[in-house]
Amino acid sequence: MIDPIPAIVMAGSRPGPDPLLTGSGASTKALLPIAGQPMLVHVVRALRASPGIGSIAVLAQNSAELAAEPGLAGLADLHFADSGAGISSSLAAALPPGDDPVLVTTADNVLLTPAMIAEFVAGAEGSDVAVAMVEKDVLLARYPESKRTWLKFRGGWWSGANMFRLRGRRVLPLLDFWGRIERDRKKGLKIIAAFGPWLLIGALLRLFTIEQGIARAGLRFGLKATVVPMSEGEACIDADKPVDIELIEKIMARRQAEASA
């Protein structure tokens, strides 16, 4: 059995106005209500219900505001800390000591479930860096209307599922690198190109699978990097746009109906 690992939830706001908040009454995206509860509450409750997760830290620019959310009251081993200006620098400051692993997710990953978490944690075991991904056919088979950012590799197109496993402070060089390119996080080819011309050429020509591509990218930093293919398409549907929220509301309503049936 895998020992529980701590989790970090990135719940900060990006610079500039967020169109999702217009007219909502919420001060930050993490507190935007979906299916009757703030996004952050859905994510933290899924983590807390997961046997594979230990302590949970929530990072945000104004963490005290999130800590006051009633939906989070009484949850065990839940902590809050103020984050810095960027995702990578904030995460680097929150990593556990030594080589202890940590799971990282985001407050807008509202469809997260304990089953998804268990699947990812098991698949990520033994890696320095693991990334949860969903293959395009897996998502579109059930949700053809969903629009995601796709990375094209041999054997399929892939989208990130907002879950990562990082093995402690040995990933600091990678986070420093990510801090310089995270502004392009939605531009697949720019991200690939940043890891070097051979990775870009290989991706353009589809010379290798995404597993091989991620492994090559990790080697640049002396890390064992792996992809964990998620079996549920819902794992990559996060709340980025109003159309995403509409779909998420429908999925959550269906889940509730199935649970009460």
Automatic annotation (TrEMBL):
One of its GO terms (molecular function) is nucleotidyltransferase activity. The keyword Transmembrane applies. InterPro entries: MobA-like_NTP_Trfase, Nucleotide-diphossugar_trans. Residues 28-135 form the MobA-like NTP transferase domain. It comes from the Bacteria. Keywords: Magnesium, Membrane, Transmembrane, Transmembrane helix. The chain crosses the membrane at residues 188-208. This is 4-diphosphocytidyl-2C-methyl-D-erythritol synthase. It comes from Sphingopyxis macrogoltabida. The lineage of its organism: Bacteria, Pseudomonadati, Pseudomonadota, Alphaproteobacteria, Sphingomonadales.
